[in-house]
């Protein structure tokens, strides 16, 4: 995994720099997500890694699968990746591009897992508190997990805050059993 990330980093950085200069970070992010998804769908991973296809054919297969979703600069980028035998890196490139984009925009995606559905006002209040704490713009994605019993689990990048009743009970059980 670390090797793939190391190989993908210069390609993600180059794509990010181009998108930043073209003022199209969102467009590139969306197109890279489409490419990453298409490259892993069904037998596509085998086809774009097939030694029986030329680099141009591999790029064409992937570009055709994405249809009109890709701009010309992104199509050129796919062809460059194919020439360098790096199409397999598209998922890692997409993840790194998103990380660069979030750092540039000083934003973070936050996943809230609660025991029950939060009212919009509660969710906004929690998002504002997280925004103040992390000093970043927050994009919240909420989900419900009834097994939490009560409380909330917040995941923001590498940060995980487990304020759930289930988490507290597990900590208590570990302390008792130690």
UniProtKB/TrEMBL annotation:
Annotated keywords: ATP synthesis, Cell membrane, CF(1), Hydrogen ion transport, Ion transport, Membrane, Transport
InterPro entries registered for this protein in UniProt: ATP_synth_OSCP/delta_N_sf, ATPase_OSCP/d_CS, ATPase_OSCP/dsu
GO MF assignments: proton-transporting ATP synthase activity, rotational mechanism
Topology relative to the membrane: Peripheral membrane protein
Any one Gene Ontology cellular component term annotated for this protein: plasma membrane
Protein's UniProt keywords contain Ion transport: yes
Entry-linked NCBIfam families: ATP_synt_delta, PRK05758.2-2
Protein name: ATP synthase subunit delta
Organism: Marinimicrobium koreense
């Amino acid at each position: 995994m670390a090797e793939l990330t190391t190989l993908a980093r210069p390609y993600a950085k180059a794509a990010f720099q181009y998108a930043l200069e073209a003022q199209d970070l969102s467009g590139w992010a969306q197109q890279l997500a489409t490419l990453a998804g298409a490259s892993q769908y069904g037998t596509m991973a085998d086809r774009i890694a097939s030694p029986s296809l030329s680099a141009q054919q591999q790029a064409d297969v992937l570009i055709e699968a994405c249809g009109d979703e890709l701009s010309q600069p992104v199509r050129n980028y796919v062809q460059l990746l194919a020439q360098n035998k790096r199409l397999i890196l598209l998922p890692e490139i997409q993840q790194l591009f998103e990380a660069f984009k979030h750092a540039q925009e000083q934003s973070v995606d936050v996943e809230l897992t609660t025991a029950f559905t939060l009212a919009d006002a509660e969710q906004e209040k929690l998002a504002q508190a997280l925004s103040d704490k992390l000093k970043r713009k927050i994009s919240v994605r909420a989900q419900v997990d009834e097994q939490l019993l009560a409380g909330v689990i917040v995941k923001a990048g590498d940060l995980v805050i487990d304020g759930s009743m289930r988490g507290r009970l597990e900590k208590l059980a570990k302390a008792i059993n130690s």
